Amino acid sequence: MVAGFCTEELTLNVSVHRIWKAAACEDHILLPQIMPQYFSSAELIGDGEAGSTKIFHFAPEAKPLTFVKNHVEVLDHGSHTLKYKTLDGGHLGHTLKSHTIEFKYEALSADTCAVKIKVEYDTIDDKGLSDEEVKKIKEGTAWMSKAVEGYLIANPASYA
């Protein structure tokens, strides 16, 4: 097993309030709507706050992935920090033994914010992830954040 992490930082052209509500608090509702080519559906077990579980079901195009079950470790509305720990599915059992992802949103202005993303993982075997695998992780998290940003820009009344 090899522990590793990667980080990504993006500037988003929406307010921290809107992106927080859409991407952190209601991602289980929004992502299947705006990314049906990747997410077919999602379920929330709990009230959405820390301690809840969100299960995202992947579309057939996302094979070999079928679902990912994430536990909400942190949902801090004051610091705009969301941290998930994957309990089952996703890449667990394929290449990873454990996987957590943290999103921290920070206001830059009234209509822009930064998102700092940190992914931590332990691999199953005694080698780390390849540069290509790390690149895919970073691109995937950026792609989802940019998809939410695009939706919010196109729908200025949503999550206002």
TrEMBL record:
SUPFAM superfamilies: Bet v1-like
A Gene Ontology molecular function term of the record: protein phosphatase inhibitor activity
InterPro entries (UniProt xref): Bet_v_I/MLP, Bet_v_I_allergen, Plant_def-hormone_signal, START-like_dom_sf
Domain Bet v I/Major latex protein as annotated: residue spans: 3-154
CDD domains: Bet_v1-like
Gene3D superfamilies: 3.30.530.20
Any single biological process term in GO: abscisic acid-activated signaling pathway
Recorded GO CC terms: cytoplasm; nucleus
Family note: Belongs to the BetVI family.
Identification of the protein by name: Bet v I/Major latex protein domain-containing protein
Organism: Ensete ventricosum (Abyssinian banana)
